[in-house]
Design goal:
This protein has 124 residues and is mostly helical. It contains five helices and no strands. It is flat and about 70 Å long.
Length: 124
């Protein structure tokens, strides 16, 4: 059976959703998702999180959450670039926006090699 075909149990779904939404510990998420109380619930939840289909769902949920959070973060950086009291904060936010838009300055580095390199190969 392929990973995508495996179904998550209600507890596994609740565990992942709680972890992503709350950002809490596995022990707390396990308790909220209905796993056994205490250490045994944490152990069972940890084992569930190691299953490939559960990890796949976790990554999917994290990507969704990051996508939503990214719009908020972009708005915050834009607000800081135009309205922060500190000019340093405005500068750093503006540089970050330019960087993300593809206008990153060229990294200039100068490499200088000094010395004499000799290679001797004796085949005899």
């Amino acid at each position: 059976m392929k990973i995508a075909e495996r179904k998550l149990t209600a507890k596994q779904t609740a565990l992942v959703d709680t972890l992503v939404a709350k950002g809490c510990s596995i022990k707390q998420a396990a308790a909220d998702a209905g796993y056994a109380e205490g250490e045994s619930g944490r152990v069972t939840a940890t084992k569930a999180l190691k299953l490939a289909h559960v990890q796949q769902y976790l990554m999917q949920r994290m990507n969704e959450e990051f996508g939503i959070s990214a719009t908020l973060a972009a708005g915050t950086v834009k607000r800081l670039a135009t309205g922060a009291k500190s000019e340093y904060v405005q500068l750093e936010a503006a540089k970050d926006l330019l960087d993300r838009a593809g206008y990153k300055p060229i990294d200039r580095s100068q490499v200088q090699v000094a010395g004499d390199i000799r290679v001797s190969i004796d085949l005899g």
